[in-house]
């Protein structure tokens, strides 16, 4: 039987195919080995790889310092903040029904909570007047757990500020800041007792200054984005230096909870009320003695004025500082002690911040002429 043999040409091609394939596979192996070595050289040493056991390499030193400073600030402030727990008197209607035997009046129980702040080592506490005004009994709960009875020292219902006193040792007062230096956008912290949750801390900024006509008080308010809820009233609004620059007062809310619209009384108002009550036993109310009316366009034209801003004098009271200064009906006050006056409310707020006995300068418009006057503010007659 004759064997079949491939032609030499085909054998040569088959040999050439295996040689080329072998060379290609060898080159591919060498390339892969080189890439692997290069990749390993680019990797950091094993000691620098991030693992769950060593997460310290992802810490930012600057952020860590900031975090420590903030927590230290809070730890410094919290001992000066107290919870205010009140017991209100029974309702008069319920008492009448009890007297007539129509119902049984239950014992009075704690039904209102707020916040306050310690402002002296002798036990003086500042809070809001609306927190304690209907109470027959008020207790202050300190951060160390002590619950102490308080005594009402005095109050200013116009400013919504009340001064309480407790008898205790080892009290840490919180310092006042100058609320006149507060700027929109600066960081603030609100601390209080919202919904009975003691020592609650929220952070935000001053959203606006000079908010007015938002409550029955005569104050202008700071608006803050720091969350404020029922129970925060009377607690401090604090700057980054640990100083009180506002007293948390009220919120505007559709739901009853915090919506980023919280309002605080400037600390200078609270400090003035506190100083007056502790020194004199009552608030010294500055008195100017004028009757004002709104200034509109027809009146401005009649008086020869080119603008409608200012406080128009309708009358001055007998023997008042305004009369002694020489003010007359028809005068328009445009500046009070170097503060611009745009309307009667501006004048009222400037007067509230003036000390009794302080000499003030006035700039007025009188039938087209600018006149400068001065006078000394007196205490409001009883």
Write the layout of secondary structure elements.
Blueprint: H1 8-42, H2 61-77, E1 81-88, H3 92-99, E2 110-118, E3 124-128, H4 129-132, E4 135-141, E5 147-149, E6 151-156, E7 161-165, E8 187-192, E9 200-211, E10 221-224, E11 236-238, E12 244-251, E13 262-266, H5 267-280, E14 286-287, E15 290-293, H6 297-302, E16 311-316, H7 321-325, E17 332-336, E18 339-340, H8 344-352, E19 359-366, E20 369-376, E21 378-379
Antiparallel strand pairs: 1-2, 1-4, 2-3, 3-7, 4-5, 6-7, 8-9, 8-11, 9-10, 10-13, 11-12, 12-13, 14-21, 15-16, 16-17, 17-18, 17-19, 19-20
Comma- or semicolon-separated keywords:
31% strand, 382 residues, 26% helix, Thrombin, subunit H, 8 helices, six-stranded antiparallel beta barrel, Pdz3 Domain, alpha+beta
Give a verbal description of the structure:
With 382 residues, this protein is α+β, with helices and mostly antiparallel strands. The protein has three domains: 75-165, Beta Barrel (Thrombin, subunit H); 179-280, Trypsin-like serine proteases (Thrombin, subunit H), CATH 2.40.10.10; 286-379, Pdz3 Domain, CATH 2.30.42. The chain contains eight helices and 21 strands. It has a seven-stranded antiparallel β-sheet with strand order 5-4-1-2-3-7-6. A hairpin with a 7-residue loop joins strand 8 and strand 9 (200-211). The mean pLDDT is 83.
């Amino acid at each position: 039987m004759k064997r079949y043999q491939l032609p030499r040409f085909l054998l040569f091609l088959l040999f050439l195919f295996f040689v080329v394939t072998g060379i290609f596979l060898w080159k591919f192996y060498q390339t892969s080995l080189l890439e692997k070595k290069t990749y390993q050289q680019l990797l950091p040493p094993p000691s620098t790889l991030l693992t769950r056991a060593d997460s310290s390499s992802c810490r930012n030193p600057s952020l860590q310092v900031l975090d420590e400073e903030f927590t230290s600030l809070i730890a410094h402030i919290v001992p000066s903040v107290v919870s205010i727990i009140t017991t209100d008197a029974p309702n008069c209607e319920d008492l009448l029904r009890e007297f007539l035997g129509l119902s049984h009046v239950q014992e009075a129980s704690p039904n209102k909570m707020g916040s306050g702040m310690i402002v002296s080592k002798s036990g003086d506490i500042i809070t809001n007047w609306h927190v304690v005004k209907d109470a027959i009994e008020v207790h202050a709960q300190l951060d160390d757990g002590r619950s102490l009875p308080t005594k009402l020292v005095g109050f200013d219902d116009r400013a919504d500020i009340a001064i309480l006193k407790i008898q205790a040792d080892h009290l840490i007062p919180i310092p006042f800041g100058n609320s006149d230096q507060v700027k929109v956008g600066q960081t603030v912290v609100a601390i209080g007792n919202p919904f009975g949750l003691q020592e609650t801390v929220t952070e935000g900024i001053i959203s606006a200054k000079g908010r007015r006509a938002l409550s029955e008080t005569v104050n202008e308010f700071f608006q803050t984005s720091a969350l404020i809820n029922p129970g925060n009233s009377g607690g401090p609004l604090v700057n980054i230096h640990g100083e009180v620059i506002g007293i948390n007062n009220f919120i505007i809310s559709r739901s009853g909870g915090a919506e980023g619209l919280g309002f605080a009384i400037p600390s200078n108002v609270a400090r003035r009320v506190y100083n007056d009550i502790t020194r004199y036993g009552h608030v010294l109310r500055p008195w100017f003695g004028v009757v004002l009316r709104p200034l509109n366009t027809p009146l401005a034209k009649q008086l020869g004025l080119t603008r409608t801003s200012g406080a128009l004098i309708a009358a001055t009271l007998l023997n008042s500082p305004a009369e002694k200064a020489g003010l007359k009906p028809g005068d328009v006050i445009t500046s009070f002690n170097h503060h611009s006056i745009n309307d009667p409310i501006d004048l009222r707020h400037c007067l509230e911040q003036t000390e009794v006995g302080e000499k003030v300068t006035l700039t007025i418009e009188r039938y087209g002429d600018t006149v400068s006057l001065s006078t000394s503010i007196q205490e409001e007659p009883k």
